[in-house]
Write a structure and sequence with these properties.
single chain, 53% helix, six-stranded parallel sheet, alpha/beta, two-stranded parallel sheet, 419 residues, 8% strand, 8 strands
Length: 419
């Protein structure tokens, strides 16, 4: 069965899905959970807290790329080492240089001589690989084109084919091909046969992951996915159209694979405890004729400049802490352009005696330790010049350079001069 758990932000999709995973493990099954790499740590944490150590160890939480690695480990894959970015750039440079010398491109005959063409060609080939198109498949699908478009496509196919052949000839493999190749191996070996697969935190998928999903649906007993959309059947101009498009394609794949389909729609809001904020969260990207009657928790303030805006915020923070008992660590200030507001916020908060942490990237070169270190290096680099020029210090003494044989000697000399 293919089951979709759909709902807007804060509707409880993840909790619902995790409870289904818990139910599977309690029945003695070992489900497979596919999530994006960037969510793996936090999702594992949620699973562990809900399932406990024993049941958690029955679950395999994995991304598509790690899933491909597991399939290769179990069934084997192509030999050779992975090409890093430097290797890919070098091989593409050789490919482009070959076409440049032979002068046999139709559309890119002039562009191939420009400096940035190698980077452009590598990016284009990488995008083609992500779609799962091989040079042969690309040529077959574009054979009916004509004119300038045909010339452009043919040039790209030739570059793609030569680059791909160069990778293989030099014993390299591309990690962009892993999911497609792993899908083929999984299909041949019934890797997902009898499994229950959960999919979480995805809005859409590239072509190679769609191919893997098609294999999963053709073999697995059950496939359950959560999708962030309030109505999967909404019109094509809805807020969640990109997710709804994914929904329609996955539903079509499930039907092609003979899977039964079911939809669970969650319409509650658990992430907002007050109705006006929940209403704002749901409708901020929509045009609504019906407005929320009275809002006690949302205020919109218009200020003449950023200074007046930050002053108002500072005053409100002091009011919340002094009159309503809030703690400073319970209050957050969000800014779209923090780099513009940083100095204004710092000055205002210090004037209002508000303790704060500014979550802003700061170059390590501006820290006190690095300023001391770079200052010392600058001083050392100039000492030779000062000694040669006979420059004197505030006491009228010229600079003297003495080379010590060890760090201990240098430290002793400095200590003695300061004593």
């Amino acid at each position: 069965m293919f089951k979709v758990i759909a709902g807007g932000a804060g509707s409880g999709k993840s909790t619902y899905l995790i409870n289904m995973i818990k139910s599977e493990t309690e029945n003695g099954k070992s489900p497979l959970v596919i999530i994006p790499d960037q969510f793996s740590f936090e999702y594992d944490r949620k699973l562990y807290l809900t399932l406990g150590a024993e049941l958690y160890n029955m679950v395999s939480t994995i991304s598509f790329s790690r899933l491909a690695e597991d399939i290769f480990i179990k069934f084997g894959g192509r030999s050779g080492s992975y090409a890093d970015e430097v290797t890919k750039t070098t091989l593409m440079f050789n490919t482009v240089n070959k076409f440049r010398k032979n002068n046999n491109l139709q559309f890119f005959d002039r562009q191939v001589k420009t400096q940035g063409f190698v980077s452009m060609a590598l990016d284009t080939v990488s995008d083609l690989k992500k779609t799962g198109l091989s040079p042969e498949m690309f040529r077959e699908k574009t054979k009916d084109l004509d004119g300038t478009v045909k010339q452009k496509i043919d040039d790209l196919i030739e570059i793609y084919a030569d680059y791909d052949e160069s990778l293989k000839a030099n014993g390299y493999k591309d990690n962009l091909d892993d999911i497609s190749e792993a899908g083929f191996i999984a299909q041949q070996n019934d890797f997902f046969r009898g499994k229950t697969v959960f999919i979480e935190e995805f809005n859409t998928f590239p072509a190679d992951e769609y191919h893997m999903l098609e294999i999963i649906m053709s073999q697995a007993d059950d496939v359950i996915i959560s999708m962030k959309t309030e109505n999967p059947y909404d019109n094509e101009f809805s807020v969640f159209e990109s997710v709804n498009k994914t929904f329609r394609r996955l539903k079509y794949i499930s039907q092609e694979c003979g899977q039964e389909f079911s939809l669970k729609l969650l319409d509650s809001s658990y992430s907002h405890s007050v109705p006006d904020i929940a209403y704002l969260s749901r409708n901020i990207m929509r045009n609504r004729e019906k407005l929320f009657p009275v809002s006690d928790h949302v205020r919109i303030i218009e200020a003449k400049d950023m200074y007046e805006e930050v002053e108002w915020v500072s005053a409100q923070i002091k009011r919340l802490t002094m009159d309503f008992g809030y703690k400073y660590n319970e209050i957050a200030v969000l800014s779209r352009r923090l780099e513009d507001y940083a100095s204004v916020i710092e000055a205002s908060f210090e004037r209002f005696s508000i303790p704060y942490f500014l979550d802003m990237k700061k170059s390590v070169m501006h820290t006190s330790v690095m300023l001391l270190f770079t200052g010392a290096l600058e001083l050392i680099s100039k000492t030779d010049e000062w000694a040669t020029d006979g420059r004197t210090n505030i006491f009228g003494h010229t600079v003297q350079i003495t080379e010590m044989q060890s760090e201990a000697g240098a430290a002793g000399a400095v200590h003695g001069s300061l004593a």
